[in-house]
Amino acid sequence: MIRLEGVSWAPEGHPVLDRLDLSLEMGRVTAIVGPSGCGKSSLLRVLAGLRAPDAGRVTGVPKRKAFVFQDAALLPWLTLRDNVALPGRFGPIGNVDEALARVGLVEHAAKLPAALSGGQRMRGSLARALVAKPELVLLDEAFAALDGLTRASVQREFLALQAEHAWTVVMVTHELVDAVRLSDRVVAVSGPPLVVRADLAVPYPRPRDPSDLPPIVAQLEAVYAA
Fold first, then answer.
1. How far are the Cα atoms of 33, 81, 124, 176, 216 from residue 150, in angstroms, in the given order?
2. Residues with Cβ within 8 Å of residue 148, at least 6 apart in sequence
3. CB 195 within 8 A of CB 154
4. How far apart are CA 92 and CA 131, in angstroms?
5. Please, what is the angle between helix 118-131 and helix 148-165, to 10°?
6. Which comes out higher in pLDDT, residue 226 or 211?
7. pTM above 0.85, yes or no
8. Where are the alpha helices (DSSP H) in 62-204?
9. Of 197, 161, 5, nearest to 182 (Cα)?
10. Cα angle 133-187-73, degrees, rounded to a multiple of 5
């Protein structure tokens, strides 16, 4: 179990996180939903160890982590293969070619990011996460820049990888339907400072029938309408 206990962070005196308590179950997908600027991404960065809280403590965070960003964050001067291999600069990694094959990008391995489509770049980012052999995967609006058809395809790939490797996933999004479709639990927040408005389990098995989603989406919409 990952636990945040009384976590506060206030850059330049402006509270973004204020005595936040939150527990995250291992091996599950937790979606953090809320409006832009409420502190969701700051929470991810605290979990990633990229920001130290001013107060409180964070426990149970695995050492092996991967961060997937909205823009895929591929270095433009490196080939796709070299981008996927980047975690190897910081420790042992899995087989890069196998990871590229797993996401269907072997034939694009020698291309620079500019020669790839948005969906291919995001799959490359997932392959980079895969070779890092993470226990915790953090997604920061990872699917937001993709068109509808590409988004659905990449999300299916993500769910397959999560199931295969039992990743613990914390995903930040403002898309309520994506949160309900992909996660086991949705935590609705507002802020700043970030506060939990609702905490909902998603009981439906995967793959999910779209007709199952509206009731929970409606509950989330009601949280923000109140």
1. 21, 21, 14, 18, 24
2. none
3. no
4. 9
5. 10
6. 211
7. yes
8. 80-84, 96-102, 118-131, 148-165, 176-182
9. 161
10. 40
Q: What's residue 71's pLDDT?
A: 82
Q: What's the pLDDT at 147?
A: 86
Does 169 or 206 have the greater pLDDT score?
169
Helices in the chain by DSSP H: which ranges?
A: 40-48, 80-84, 96-102, 118-131, 148-165, 176-182, 214-225
The domains of the chain are located at: 1-60+136-146+167-226, 64-134
Distance, CA of 168 to CA of 186 (rounded, Å)? 14
Residue 109 falls in which region: left (phi positive, over 0), alpha (psi -120 to 50) or beta: alpha
Burial class (CB in 10 A: 0-12, 13-18, 19+), 209: exposed
The CB density around residue 147, as the number of other CB atoms within 10 Å, is 10
90's CB contacts (< 8 A; 6+ apart) are none
CATH class of 1-60+136-146+167-226: alpha beta
Measured distance CA(112)–CA(121) in Å, rounded: 10
Tens of pLDDT, residue by residue over 93-138, are 999 999 999 999 999 999 999 999 999 999 999 999 999 999 999 9
Q: Name, in order, each residue with C-beta under 8 angstroms of 110's C-beta and a sequence gap of 6 or more.
A: 79, 80, 81
